[in-house]
Each structure stands twice: as structure tokens, then as C-alpha cells.
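Reopening this one. Same input as before:
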Amino acid sequence: MRELVIVSGKGGTGKTSLTAAFAGLAAQDGTLVLCDADVDAADLHLLTQPAIRQQTDFMGGGKALVDPDLCTGCGICRAHCRFAAISERFAVDPIRCEGCGVCVHFCPERAIAFAPQRCGQWFVSETRFGPMVHAHLGVAEENSGRLVSLVRREARQLAEERALELLITDGPPGIGCPVIAAVGGATALAIVVEPTVSGLHDLGRVLDLAAHFRVPGLVCVNKFDLNPEMTEAVEELARSRNVALAGRIPFDPAFVRAMVQGQTVLEFDQAGQARQAVRAVWDNIIRSPAMNPAGIVDFR
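Same output, byte for byte:
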């Protein structure tokens, strides 16, 4: 099984639109599992209309709760709480509580409970492209890296159970904990970049992360024609880091129009320029040495 993770240095680069388009192309062989690992802002379902077959609660960090029958009012918990989450009456403010557990550790009466909380949910669904594992993290909830690891693990297990050869994962943006959880152990990364100064900077950070985890990457410049000079700079950085170029995709309003219709750009626009560019990028990725067992990748 091969896993392609689509990442970007920031949100809004077109990563999810390309993930859905790639899924449409890969689904022609009937060997695909989709995974939406962008759990903080999951939106791949908007383009795939999944029919949920399994729904499971995701339990994360706990919140402190003082038992008034056991509490003696010694004040040790309040003294140690750095977030001022415990009132003078020893009631815990769930908004202020960061779930660190220090009050539980120091309470001499064992009067503070610390039960795990439901942080979100994860799902196994069927789409027109194939099975999909995705999740939804609650508003302002934490543990997104742990949830990313969970959905990737479930997607891999699903692929193995159904003997499917390809897993396409819509990864989180940036280089933080959720991204680290998404890229480790992947076959290759498709790095979507916009031709801007910040895009060039973000690409450098993503390439550093990929090199650290020894995962080969392929760079795709989206909306390349908005700034041809910066496109050249982005591609030159990729070449200087021995990273393959997957291709260029022009700016095309069809991407947004397709999203409004709940379709991929390939389904929406049968003859547009972007359609041909996306297909060419996908062909370059799936045939690349990085995505094939016989490929040799230079990590220097």
C-alpha cells in the first residue's frame, strides 16, 4: 500500500480541491481509500458527500471537577493552578481549565476528578470515489495530532482489510503537531504552493519537515500564472533541495464554482485548462520514483 499525503505550508492553497480531484482520477482503478487528516478544519466531505457507515466518539484530555463532599478547602489546587481556573469556592471554570492535571496531582484529599472528555468524532464513510476515513474536532478542542494519527491508522487498516493499494490523505496545513502526525511513515508528500513570498518561505519549512522524517516530496505550484517570477523562485528552491516538480496549475475560477456544486474541478469543467493541468500533475505524481517501490530518492 502506498500513501500520498497532500500538504501545504498554509491554508487556502487549494490542497483539498486537488485532493478530491486526485481521488477522482485514482478511483478509475478502484484501488483507493481517502483520508481527511485536516481535523481542525475538515472540508473534504464537502466535495465527496460521504455516506457515514460508522461514527465513533474521540475522547481526549480531561477537565478537572472538584467533588464538594471530599474537598476540605485547603487551597492547594488554587495555589498550583497557573490558569486561575479554580474559584474561591473551589468550582472549576471549564473554559479556563487547560486540562494539565496539576490540581489532581497535588490534591491531598483526592477530591478532584479528571475524566476524559469527548473532543470530537471520527467516521468511516463511503463516497463515489471509494471508502473514506475522516473526523471532526470540536470547537477549540485540543489533541488534533492524536486524532490525525487515529484517522490515518484507521484508513491504513481499512485499506489492508479491503486489499486496496492506494491511500490519499488530505493533510493539515503548516508544520505543527497535526502535520507531523500526518507525514510520518507516508510514501510521499505532494506539497501545494502558491507563488508568493510567504509561499516560498512556507515551502522551505515544509521541505525541512519532510527531510527530517525522510519522506520524499513533490512540489506543485497552484495559480502559477498569477506571479510567474515567484513561480520560478519556488521551483528553483525545490530543485536546490533535490525535490521533484509535479507541475503547475493555472488560476481558474472553475475550482470555486465546482466547490459550490459539491464537485471536483474535473467533474465540473470537462474542457478547462485547469483540468488538463491537474491530470498532468497527477500523472507526474503517481508515476514518480517517490510513489513507486523501485524509486530511488536522494535525501541529501
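So the earlier flakiness isn't reproducible anymore. For the record, The two ends are 26 Å apart (CA to CA).
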